[in-house]
């Protein structure tokens, strides 16, 4: 384990010990606010009941996201309703799926779809995952062998995405996507899945696994707050920009009947 000391601490704050965990696929679930606060800043409605599981709904009510760790197997459920040419779809992800990877998918739900055709495998290949065809199926495995992504196709041509990560002790998580899940969302997930960036976890929240590498860092509470604030501010700014484009432009010239400098008196 490496140890790093961050400079620039203020005298009024006490630094807290955190760990950068690699690979991120085995970092454990993390703080779900990483997901929920970004969605809230993007205009999503918090439908959670007091003391109940997390429940979020998109502004157009087309997508619902829930997280419940108290049921078996527990974890994340994302459900999209049928709209236009898009059929109903769903995704289920285990509770130990890192929030940084979950956010790859959920952040994409708040953003416009790219005009480019999605390629689920491209982000994995860029990070040197091993890919191999198996008849009508396709598999990608991370260089360390801990994470995978499978594409399965049944006799009717229906596709199913199955992915996850496990260490040698069997600890980890799995996720599944419905055949109708939009491919750009699956690609957003695979991009986050393959990212080499470590995940940060506080002391006491690092999984016990021989396959992870940790770097100890001392972090100020204000730094953690600033990082989250910057992430949420970016979500609010992006949402505002999209809404501004969709709303009518304000009138910049006077109406024909409104003479400049004239006032009409109501009788």
UniProtKB/TrEMBL annotation:
Annotated region (Disordered), positions in chain: 238-267
Membrane-spanning parts: none
Compositional bias of kind Low complexity: 238-247
Occurrences of domain DUF317 (ranges): 57-114, 141-199
Pfam families from the UniProt entry: SPDY
Record protein name field: DUF317 domain-containing protein
Superkingdom: Bacteria
Protein source organism: Streptomyces colonosanans
Segment forming the signal sequence: none
């Amino acid at each position: 384990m490496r140890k790093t000391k961050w400079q620039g601490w203020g005298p009024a704050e006490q630094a807290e010990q955190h760990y950068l965990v690699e690979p991120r696929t085995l970092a454990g679930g993390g703080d779900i606010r990483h997901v929920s606060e970004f969605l809230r800043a993007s205009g999503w409605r918090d439908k959670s009941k007091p003391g109940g599981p997390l429940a979020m709904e998109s502004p157009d009510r087309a997508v619902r996201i829930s997280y419940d760790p108290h049921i078996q197997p527990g974890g994340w459920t994302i459900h999209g309703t049928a709209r236009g040419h898009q059929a109903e779809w769903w995704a289920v992800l285990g509770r130990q799926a890192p929030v940084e990877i979950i956010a790859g998918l959920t952040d994409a739900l708040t953003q416009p779809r790219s005009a480019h055709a999605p390629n689920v495998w491209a982000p994995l290949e860029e990070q040197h995952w091993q890919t191999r065809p198996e008849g009508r199926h396709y598999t990608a495995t991370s260089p360390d062998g801990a994470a995978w992504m499978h594409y399965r196709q049944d006799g009717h041509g229906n596709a199913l995405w199955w992915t996850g990560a496990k260490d040698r002790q069997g600890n980890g998580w799995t996720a599944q996507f419905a055949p109708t899940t939009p491919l750009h969302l699956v690609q957003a997930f695979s991009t986050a899945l393959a990212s080499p960036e470590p995940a940060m976890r506080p002391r006491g929240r690092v999984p016990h696994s021989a396959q992870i590498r940790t770097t100890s860092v001392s972090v100020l509470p204000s730094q953690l707050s600033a990082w989250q604030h910057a992430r949420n501010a970016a979500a609010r700014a992006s949402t505002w920009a999209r809404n501004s484009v969709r709303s009518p432009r304000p009138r910049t010239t006077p109406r024909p009947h409104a003479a400049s400098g004239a006032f009409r008196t109501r009788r």
